[in-house]
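Exercise (ungraded).
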Amino acid sequence: MSDDPLPRVFAAEPIRTQVRAAVARAWRDAIESGALPPIPGDTPVPEVDVERPSDPAHGDFASNLAMRLARPYRMAPAVIAEALATQLERAAAEPTTSTPVATAEVAAPGFLNMRLGDAALETTVAAVLDDPAGWGRVEARGARTVNVEFVSANPTGPLHVGNARGAFIGDLLSRVLEAGGQRVTREYYFNDSGGQIRNLGATVAALRRGDPIPEDGYKGTYVDELADSLPDDVWSTATAPGADTDGLIGKWAAGRVRLGIEASLEGLGVHFDVWTSEARLHDEGWVTRAVERLREHGHVYDQDGAVWFRSTAFGDDKDRVILRSNGEPTYFAADIGYVTEKFSRGFDHLIYIWGVDHHGTVARLRNAAGAMGYDREAVQILLYAWVHVIRDGGQVSMSKRRGDFVTLDEFLGEVGPDAARWFFASRAVTTEIDFDIEIFKKQTNENPVYYVQYAHARIASILRKAAEAGLAPAGDVTGALLGAPEAALARAIVRFPEVVEDAVASEETLGLTAYATDLATTFHGFYRDARVVDQDAPARSASRLALASAARITLANTLALLGISAPDSM
RNA sequence: GCGCCUGUAGCUCAGUGGAUAGAGCGUUGGGUUCCGGACCCAAAGGUCGCAGGUUCGAGUCCUGUCGGGCGCGCCA
């Protein structure tokens, strides 16, 4: 490995990308040098990829390329791996070649195990310190303007814990996409015109009159509060002769509930850029025009007085009504109108975050988008599984109509937004999860979020201590990897952009929480083994402070990506 | 009945076709004259629901099967 610092540009891409390129180059070099034959033109060429081995004894990166080449080459994997390893080490010994790989060895049955050189680690750590804000932003691949629509709960009652999951998933995904270089609009769609709103209005009106709640009406203390706070002028207008009482009261109540929903979401740290009213979509003709558009494309027909979308042409079980025989559009009609409205705003990708109960409508919406001439692939729906809230050993219901549910606000009062975010961020969206409020409260000090925040606070404290002692982090980290504790910490730090890349690609955040926990653990080990603040060894202190500082930045950026605070003390 | 999701340690959950299946909590046993003990180290704990198949290699892919969840409206 060369002693010369690697060019600055080298650190701009994740080390994994650099290693991948090094392996691909080694393969080309092996062919050019005659160590490996050229690959026959008619055989599929395997993709060069590298992975982080689970066992650290296998090095920093491993590649299975040799095993994948065994078949096309009709050669033993170990022989191929040996040829690749030879080229990798030759490149490492070449002073003019910049490669992150210092050593490469072959392990049965044909793994290529590689170890990073100190220079690559140092260059990356230096890049962290140079540009803390940019650390963890990854190169935009196919940069897009994305609309992420989530929560979108009807304004017929307060948000409950189930809505919290959708809220966090949408916000977390938005943050991850932004880190991946995409422009994201967070959007909330609220239904302020349907039958459920009239139903809410009927409930509130009945309560106001002192009548019993209608059979399908809403229950819960919040409807009593709505009835109590209904202004007299709204009431008199709504009950004037010929007035649509349920509709007018429902509209008022929905507006009122929406304000509460916004406040609840603010409590989660979730902010929406755009609130779209379903009534507005209808008023502005989006729904009508979407139906016309389908008709122009020949995907619509009239039968039994209704207008149908020929969804069977796209593999659906049956065709679907879009305009009812009474002339009213269905919910599905509003959905397709909304698709056209969203695309008209210039988004090239639409993401919907829905609960699993909507999975039946996923294909239908995408098909309708395709039928209107949009790219079906540009409409993506992410389904999340249910949350079972457990309290006192029993499952808590989440039925709004029964009025018997844990509201989001109650929930947040008990667990706090950071802990709640961590909980949802660390679980795959498709996993049904049990949330035992009692256990969560009881184990609050053992929760991994506090473990990570503690590591951050601990580093901040060390940096303060160092400043008091007149010690500063080294400006030049060359040679900072003095021993095993330093090397282990640097290795953990440089992994961050890969974790972000994986999060962007998988549209999941659990890799980020796992990484944060791992980095915190690595730092605690570093802290145990390497005294950082030591006035008797200022140069060594400076090196270790630089690493500690890079670790703090990385933890802070990981937490920021999750929307979780990174306290300097706790 | 058809379709989608799901089944991994006592509990809650990870695990992009790779090497000895992991983490946190819980349990047991250790650790600090020193930068934050909300910490660290170690141990115990698994027929990856079950049965076949695909291949150099399967928790991962395919088929079947059993259990759990959800969906199959001119509701939203």
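Further reading is listed at the end of the chapter. For now, observe: Residues 150-283+385-445 of chain A form a domain with the Rossmann fold fold (CATH 3.40.50.620). The two ends of chain A are 43 Å apart (CA to CA).
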